[in-house]
Each structure stands twice: as structure tokens, then as C-alpha cells.
Amino acid sequence: MATNRHPIQHPHRGRLNHAQEMTLRYGEDPRWDAFHSEAEHREAWARNRDHLLARYQHGRRPAAWWRFEASIPFPGYDHEQAALFEADLLHEDERAELEREWRRAFEQARAPGFMFCAGFAKPSDTTATWLEGEAAKRAHLKWAGVPRALIRKWTAERKRRGKTVRELEAASVPGGANRGSAVSTEAQIQELARYIYEQTVIVAQAHANIRDAERKMGELIEQQEKQTGLKF
């Protein structure tokens, strides 16, 4: 699998001032007089590439990477993760982590009665607009940045599982269309078992993320209490 996070050895990493580091990370800005030429900009990136990339994960890359190394155009912040995923430019751990998050968003959008808050439709509105049905699903998946290829893949899987459930139900009825088809039934059961396993992994990861967030919050509260002498 292609990746762009393998270290490139640069024995003399350059010392960056604040304006230069901000430019390498976030792009050029009139407030930052960072580099006097394109060559100086490129050289600063080459010398500090590994150091800066080490800070980026979860499907994000610094502006200088997009400027000097990317094989695809920068798609904008909202579409960055999906673009890197679809171009096969993510490291294995990034790809797996993002797929888990996107799968949770996909399943959430298909929960019974799911609604999506679209905010204020017009500046004069005083109440938010809530979407329902297919409009809510599409808006949620767009907001979550789920790649179209995964949406198509997971939608097809859900359709196959739905068909499998219907066939199993038919097989359990006397005279059902699939009655006596042991091979077919076994394959269907295996497919459902895989789905149950996938959902178990997703739930376990969500619980792990919650525990990690609770631990970090406890550490922050403890630190704040020590600094202020107050109890939260």
C-alpha cells in the first residue's frame, strides 16, 4: 500500500522561526513573512519534513506536503481525509482508524428515526432545520466525510444481508422457497456472523474511545485543580 510517512533522513534539520513553521504547516499568509523564495521554502520543508509529518495523523497532512509532494490537488480541509483515502496515500493505521469512524457514521445514519441538524436554512431563521429520511442520511455522510466508494460498498453489503435475512425467514416456513438448501443456509449464516463480528468490533472501539476520553478528561481536571486550588 502506498504511503507518505516513511522517514527521509535529513542530518541537519533547520531551525524554524514561528512564521516559517506556521507557513509549512498551514500555508502562506500575509501576516507571515516566512520565506524569501520558493527555493528557500522548499529547502525548509525538506529539512523539517520528518519532524512536521510526525505531528500529523488521522488523514491530515501539512500544507507544505500538499505543495511539494502530493500527487493529487489539495481538495480542501473537509475532503482531505477522503481524498487521501481514495488516492491510497494513507498509512495502514490511519486507514483502519478512519474506516472505523466512517463505518460508525454510516451505521448511525441508518438507525430508525435518524435525523440530522442542518443548522439555519436562512439567516433570518430562529430555529434550526432538521432533516429526515434519505436527506438526513446524505447530509450526515457528507458531514462525516465518508468516501463514496465506502458508501457504495457498505450499502451493497446491507442489501445482501437484508436479502439473507429474508431468505432465512422463508426457509424457516414450511414449504418456504429455500427449505432444504443446507449449503445456501450455511453461507447465509456465515455472512450474518461476519456482520455481527464487525459490529462487535465497532462497539468495542467506541467503548475504548470513551474510556480514553474519560481518562484524559480526569487528567485535565486534576491538573486544573492543582493549578487553581479549586475542586471541579
Features:
232 residues, single chain, mainly alpha, 2 strands, two-stranded antiparallel sheet
Description:
This protein has 232 residues and is mostly helical. It has three domains: 18-90, no CATH class; 97-144, no CATH class; 147-232. It is 60% helix and 4% strand. It has helices spanning 18-26, 38-53, 63-68, 80-86, 92-109, 133-144, 148-171, 182-228; strands spanning 115-119, 129-132. A two-stranded antiparallel sheet has the order 1-2. The radius of gyration is 25 Å and the shape is extended. The protein starts with 17 loop residues before the first helix and ends with a helix. Mean pLDDT is 82; it is low at 8-12.
User: Major sheet, described briefly?
Assistant: 2 strands, antiparallel
The number of domains? 3
Number of helices: 8
Strand content: under 5%
Spatial ordering of strands, largest sheet: 1-2
Low-confidence stretches: 8-12
Order of helices and strands: HHHHHEEHHH
Distance between the termini: 47 Å
Count of β-strands: 2
The SS-based structural class is: mainly alpha
Average of per-residue pLDDT values: 82
| Principal-axis shape | extended
Approximately how much helix is present in the residues? Answer: 55-70%
Q: Radius of gyration, Cα only, in angstroms?
A: 25 Å
